[in-house]
Amino acid sequence: MGVGVLGTGHYAPMKVVTNKDLEKIVDTSDEWIRTRTGIEERRIAEDDMDTSEMAFQASLAALEEAKVKAEDLDLILVATVTPDTPFPSVSCMLQEKLGAVKAAAMDLSAACAGFMYGMVTAKQFIETGVYKNILVVGAEKLSKITDWSDRNTCVLFGDGAGAAVIGEVSDNKGILSFELGANGAGGEHLYQDANEGYLQMNGREVFKFAVRQMPESSVNVIEKIGYNKEDVDYLIPHQANIRIMEAAREKLGISEDRMATTIKKYGNNSSASIPMALSEAAKSGRINDNDLVVLVGFGAGLTWGAIALRW
Ligand code: ACO
Q: How sure is the predictor about 218, in pLDDT bands with cuts at 50, 70 and 90?
């Protein structure tokens, strides 16, 4: 038995905020944002669209594709750093919206690596035979913790949600290997401040960490299962900065068209970035049956995670 993805879904809010729009509110330029980050625009949720509602929209699509009924879910895991409220959890709100009456529900906080942590957690419950169908979601309304007067951070982030239903797949398919990690000593480089509740970041330090960790973890999960870099068909990195993503791609030696790059239109969606990119890649046919896919993320904590997946 393998443990893999039965269906994916994603949701991006309608409102588009371009780099030109941001030029009107902070001292920045379209050119600076594009060349330093790869971002061209991002989606921002309206006031009445909170994290749980975006999670709900993405989950409906994932359940439909997986042909799994909400009432057959055993567990809901939501990775988020921007819950509607600290409690009740987004996962409980989602359980209610979906009518997933049998499902246990909990949120998971590992920032941009959250979806990786969720997938790996789901795998354990299914492999041990405890649960059959698990919904893993990454959902963020980062716009509500963004200081819109701080050009160092406000140009980077966007809102959205991605979801995957995890369950049994055939032998030799699904999650083949993973790596999770954390380094709490780096917590000071990326955090939510206690006073105003804004995201604060030492961009250079996070960059240095990510540009080393993403390539390293990507290679580790491949080597763990005895494959070579050449065997990788598709790379889905956390969408934080195109230059960091390129470092991972170059380390694996794969061509540009085999890396998901949703960053251009969505920016950095934290825990939602990877599942949104995964869902888009699966739906557009960029991932095909039997492809070896590497998912890799890093985030506040500091945390990181990578998965090698046979589609
Ligand atoms: N527009 C114009 N200038 C800017 C902007 C902006 N939006 N933001 C910063 N600058 C300026 C800085 O003030 C600095 O000016 P100075 O030299 O006069 O001080 C100059 O641009 C260069 O700044 P650097 O920090 O050297 O720029 P860098 O090339 O490192 O790019 C960036 C900055 C994009 C933030 C980069 O460091 C980065 O991507 N870091 C990683 C961030 C990241 O991945 N964060 C997400 C983590 S995931 C999570 O958990 C949410």
A: very high
pLDDT confidence band for 302 (50 / 70 / 90): very high
* 74-86 residue pLDDT tens: 999 999 999 999 9
Q: One of 19, 133, 241, 268 is an active-site residue; which one?
A: 268
Can 154 be counted among the known catalytic residues? no
Q: Which residues line ligand 1 (CB under 6 A)?
A: 28, 32-33, 36-37, 111-112, 151-152, 155, 190, 201, 203-204, 206-207, 210, 240-241, 268, 270, 299-300
Buried b (16+ CB within 10 A) or exposed e, 11-38: bbbeeebebeebbeeeebebeebeebbb
pLDDT digits (tens, 9 = 90+) for 178-205: 999 999 999 999 999 999 999 999 999 9
- Alpha-carbon distance 142 to 160, whole Å? 9
195 is catalytic: no
177 token code pair: 């290997």
Backbone angles phi, psi at 68, to 5 degrees: -115, 135
**pTM to 2 decimal places:** 0.96
Q: Which atom belonging to ligand 1 lies closest to the Cα atom of 157?
A: 51
